[in-house]
Amino acid sequence: MSLPSIESLTPARITPAKVALVKVQAIMRTAFVAAVAWNNHRKLGELAGLDDKMLADIGLTRADVGMAASEPLWRDPTVRLTVLAVERRASEKAHTRWRMARRREAVQARLGLPRETCAD
Questions:
Q1: What CA dihedral angle connects 45, 50, 55 and 57, to 10 degrees?
Q2: What phi and psi values does residue 77 have, to the nearest 5 degrees?
Q3: CB 80 within 8 A of CB 67
Q4: What are 65-116's pLDDT values in tens digits?
Q5: How far apart are CA 109 and CA 96, in angstroms?
Q6: Helical H runs in 1-120?
Q7: CA-to-CA distance for 88 and 78, rounded, in angstroms?
């Protein structure tokens, strides 16, 4: 078995055409992302037109829509709306778990049962 030559280990020659292609692809990707963000900013007007009950049905508040609208035009506001909605759901779940634990403790205290200890 022979060792590979030094010439075979060097990277392939990068031609100017390949460099130009990579630059054009980067420009097109950036333009596409900006166009999607601008379109989503435009659609925020439709969300702002909904009443509070309809916004609550989709997990948003009027303040969420306002915060998303304050994002720069090149940033997609739907990312901000998604983060706000997910954080709210997580907070509500954590609060529900906390409330249920307090209720369980109250029932145990009322019945005179020993408190459960955590194995952590």
A1: -130
A2: -70, -20
A3: yes
A4: 999 988 888 888 888 999 999 999 999 999 999 999 999 888 888 888 777 6
A5: 20
A6: 6-9, 16-48, 52-57, 62-69, 77-111
A7: 15
